[in-house]
Structures are given as structure tokens and as C-alpha cells.
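Lab notebook, bench 4. The sequencing result for the construct came back, and we need a structural model before the next group meeting so we can plan mutations. Quick request posted to the team channel:

Model the 3D structure of this chain.
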Amino acid sequence: RLFKNVHRWELRRPTMENDIKRSNSMPHNNGKRKNIRNLLGSDVPLEESQESTGDLTPEKAVNGDIFHETELETKGTSSRKKGNKVNALLGTSFANPAERTFEEELEFLSVYGLPSLNNRGKEEEKMRLISWKELVPGSEKISKRERDQQEAIWELINTELSYCQKVKALWEVFYVALAELQKKQFLKHVDVDRLFGNIREVYDTCVSFWEECLYPLYKQCQQNKFRLHPFQIVDAFDRFEDQFFPYEEFCMKERDYVAYLSSLKNESAEFRLYLHWCERHPECNRMQLADLFGKPRNRITQYPLLLKRIQQHTDDEEAKERLHRLRDRVDCFLNQVNSALARREQVEMLQDLMGKIEGYVGVEILPEYEKYVSDVLTLNLLAPMPDVPITVSRIRHLIHDGDLKLKDSATKEIHCYIFTDMLLLTTRPKKGGKVKIVYQVQDEHIIHYMLL
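Done. Here's the predicted structure in C-alpha cell form:
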């Protein structure tokens, strides 16, 4: 429908009977002017009222909750601004969500924001800190050694805050925006779990570690006006292993997320537009999604270094000992993550090699029987190593590989793979081609002699 340039508000007056009932029920005020809202009802919008009428959305405008077909009149600067904004929105297909294009849906999110960000309250104040020197009076009078210790402690706190803001951008902008678009039937071909994995668990871990462990230290320093002690940092990391276990899964699948992201960018113009919109969001500060995927891995590798710096500037022997034990725990967790990543890389490499080996024959087979067993003759490099005690890892690893020349044939070149329990000789691999096994030795004594 077309609306005129000049509008006025339409007041929905109640019936005469309701007017009389309300008038009789109101107490007399000794000649004072009656409140017009009490007379007409609290649900009537008044142009002079400064009270909030709730969030203004085009859906409310179309459904007649706020605006009507009749002429509307606006008075005052604020009323004209609201009228102009609504007229601009109603001039597009914002009014009907079913008719919005992908670009208009992004514009709608720009105007009204994302749900996760709109629901923020005073808790957001926890994400803004000031320097410890402003919290502790007389900080300029303490020794250089103590200042260096406080700088190291607050470096851990402030870098954790910066990291939390990046993870919040990853979840509250990229993830939530994609979820909102898919609700409106856009980007339905994107597999959210395949793209983001368990980022919600990482996000919850990050926020809980900040709000429950590190932010209270800031509040104590703010209230007591006294500098922090290393013991407080050690106590903050008390449940580190239990809190950060979701990081292992996320770090292991980080490469998968980046690879899937790259494929989506190449295949979908709408997905590229969605990424561009998210990167321009104020919360993201032009950070790209591929870079944000690496933040959790980078953060857990920083903890040992930050704790070591605190320890280096600590003189108290008991505090140094507790910091040392904490570093060992964090290093152990980090080694656990690195080991999981190494195992995955080994598995992927062995699977790739198995896919290149063709027609492996472990024993001599008569030609008339070969056709019956050729389909099942495969070299399974992922199988546990035989004759290895249960107490020892039975996972096979590739130690080294390279090109060789056979002594009995100066022209025949082969490729050698040395595994934990096996020597495998194949034809030289060609780009995208298959290889054939030339020789295989599976004897630990022979392998040990060759390595020496």
C-alpha cells in the first residue's frame, strides 16, 4: 500500500461504556488534570509519551500493531526520525519476511542485529578492563621486580580477555548469523556441524573460564586495591584439564573446518557474501573465519609460556614450585593434544599410501586362484603391529621414506618406506599414479640393523 508523506498517529479509543467505567473507577484528584493514559488505557500509543513501546519491527507495522492505513501525523524531531525510518523499511520487502532476498535479509540483520548480541546485558561490562596500575594505588613505588611480576600476571589476564572476544565473535556472529539465515531458508546447503564442529563447547569453556576463574581476580584487585599474587593464578587453573577437554576435538578437526570453508567459498556466491557481512560486523573487526578457527589452538600453546614468565619474575619459593607444577600439567595437556594431532596425521598418511598400492600379493598364488582372492588382498598399514605387548603402543608409524637404487640394477629406481616394524619397497610413485610393491620385510631385527 502507498502511504502519504505526512502521517499522524491514530488513537484507538475505547467504547463509551469503557470510558464511563474507567472514569468512575478513577479517584478524584481535587481538580488536577487527569492522566490521559489512565483515561484511554495503557495500551494506547501516545505521540507525546516518551515511554518505550517495544522493539519496532516491520512485522508489527504490517500486522497493524503500531501503524494503520489512515494518515499518520508525526510531531517533533524524534517522531519524524521514527517515521522516516519506518517509511524507508516499508518501502522495501522488509515488511514480508517471506519475500526478502538474501541481500535484504542481511540488511535486516544489520538494522535489527543478531539475537545473541541483542540479548546482552550488563554482563558485557565484564569484557572491559583497565590497567592494574590504575587499580593499585602506589604502583609506581613498588620495586621493578614486583612490577615485572604484575605485568606478567596481567598479560595472562588481558590476553585471555582478547581471546574471549575473538571466540565470542566466532560464535555470536558467524555461527548465529548462519543459523538465522538458514531459518529463513538461505544457505541450506551448508552443513553447520561440519563447518563449526564443537565450537559451542569451546565457546562455553572460554566464557566459563573467564567469568569463573580470571574475572574474579580483577574484581578482587579492584575492591581490595592490592596487587595479585601468583597463588591466585594457580588456583584459577585448578580445573584446567576438566574445563579444556573440548579443545582437543576442535584442534584435531581444525584442518577439516578450513578445508570445508574453502570449498564453500569456491562454490557459493551467497556464502561469500555472508562471510563478507560477518567480517564487516563491529564484533569481528574484519577478522576472517579461517583465522578465527586457529585461535583456540594458538591460545592453549600460549599458556605454558605465560605461566613461565610469571614464574621467572617470582621470588617466593613455594609460589615458584606451584607454578612449576601447574606448567607441567598444562604441558601434559598440550602434549596430549599434539599427540592426537600427530596420530591423525599418521593415519591420514597411511590411508593415502594404502590407496596408492595396487594388487598387493603377500604370498605366491597359482594363476587359476588369483582371480578369487585378488579383491581381498590388501596391505593394511593401519592394523596393529603383530607380536607387540599390550603394554606398548601397537600403532604403526612411518619413520622415513625416500628414493633408492637397487645394486643389481643400475637403472631400476625404487621408493623405500621404513615403518616401526616394516621395510616396504615399491616402485617410484608418480603424480596421481599407483605403485607396486617390490619387496617387503617385516622383521624387527632386520629393521633395527638397517636403522643403525
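Residues 1-93, 121-125, 445-452 have pLDDT under 50 and may be disordered.
Will bring this to the meeting.
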